[in-house]
Amino acid sequence: MGSCCECMKNFFGRQKNTNVRVSLPAVCFVWQIAMIILFGVFIRYDEESDARKWIEHKRDHNITSDIENDFYFRYPSFQDVHVMIFVGFGYLMTFLKRYSFGGVGFNFLIASFGLQWALLMQGWFHSLDPNTGKIYIGVESLINADFCCAGSLIAYGALLGKVSPVQLLVVTLFGITLFAVEEFIILDLLHCRDAGGSMVIHAFGGYYGLAISWVLYRPNLHQSKRLDGSVYHSDLFAMIGTLFLWMFWPSFNSAITDHGDGQHRAAINTYIALASSVLTTVAISSMSQKRGKLDMVHIQNATLAGGVAMGTAAEFMITPYGSLIVGFCCGIISTFGYLFVSPFLEKYLKLQDTCGVHNLHALPGMLGGFVGAIVAAAATESVYSAQGLINTFDFEGEFANRSVGTQGGFQAAGTCVAIAFGLVGGAIVGFILRFPIWGDPADDNCFDDEVYWEVPEDEETIPPVLEYNNHMIHKHQDISESNFSVEQS
């Protein structure tokens, strides 16, 4: 028994090898070829994107204009969500001083693979035609695939700088799969409403990443502490990601809601909640410093918490002032999370959360799920009207007799399902990633682009030929004066 334990210790504790020249191309080629085969077998255009079926659809539904194709209604929202996934999430992760290539580049990799796998996984669970065995995709499928990718990108935030690109592809493969299953349980079996994904995207993705990070705990991560931080320009780039996310979040929460008042209301509620969270974030950030200075970490992240928490209740009649209250509270809670909760989790629970996804996604997502449950349970016919309740909560078919109180209970249960899938699934994936075959960096080599990227030489390391004016004098005291220097007057 002792020799077996010793072998396991030697296996898991052997020296890291970050050479991914074989493993990364192999995974990319094999998985992409698999996608081609699976798409060839299963994926087809739906009736609104197929040349022959669209003509038949127009004739059968007495449609006279191509402008009534769902593409023209959904595509603007798809564009916004797509920008959030690739630009917003990507640039939000560029705050580390030497990991901007990894933040944007690996975000690009995760989303590009994830959206393909998501079209298949969500298709098998939601839109597989039992007669033909085919999955029919349209513009709404693309939006849902981006949503599916968001869960894995959130998880990446907790692992930023500590894992290899091969590990990230594994995280995405399992993350998309788990997402499709929990989404099916929550939205189809429990019949929950979660248009903006507080439960199925943020709570799941946040706790999925946190569980993986907990299992992959690095006791000597302090050896990379010199790189675990930001510089002036890296925080500025990250703020670009924040602004893209903040501006397009109303589209994210309203993209797949019902035509008409539901989508309109979701955009309004999200817009208001986001604005409210900015002010409370600034207030708490300023209060936390002796001289009232602001911390850019708080502004980059906690200002988005209102949009996360409004995901579930966005299409409900929460009222505009209710949206303000949600944003107000979440700005405070998220900022306090960065000030106190993250240090506590790392010190006592051994949970190293690089981007603080617990404070931006996991906790606000959980709160958003429970806010949605409360608002659903409090819905009345006098506020919504009888038909309004049916439209908002889809009380049709086998759910036609469900009461709003029951709906509220199922909404709360859906939040718990999302958290459970994230924690249990993340722990299992974390143990898989502990095998020393994935090319992850050593403890003293984390948060550094040079491990996996060809990094150009910094301009600062190249001695200037000319020293032009007096603004250079104090910056280059160590450089001997050039014969070509301009004399100061």
UniProtKB/TrEMBL annotation:
GO cellular component, one term: plasma membrane
Entry's transmembrane regions: 22-43, 81-99, 106-125, 137-159, 166-187, 199-217, 229-248, 268-287, 299-318, 324-345, 366-390, 410-433
GO biological process, one term: ammonium homeostasis
Top-level taxon of the source organism: Eukaryota
Membrane topology category: Multi-pass membrane protein
UniProt KW keywords: Ammonia transport, Cell membrane, Glycoprotein, Membrane, Transmembrane, Transmembrane helix, Transport
Residue ranges of every copy of the Ammonium transporter AmtB-like domain listed in the record: 71-434
Compartments in which it is found: Cell membrane
Record-linked InterPro entries: Ammonium/urea_transptr, NH4_transpt_AmtB-like_dom, RhesusRHD
Annotated family: Belongs to the ammonium transporter (TC 2.A.49) family. Rh subfamily.
Subunit structure: Homotrimer.
Protein name: Rh family, C glycoprotein a
Species name: Seriola lalandi dorsalis
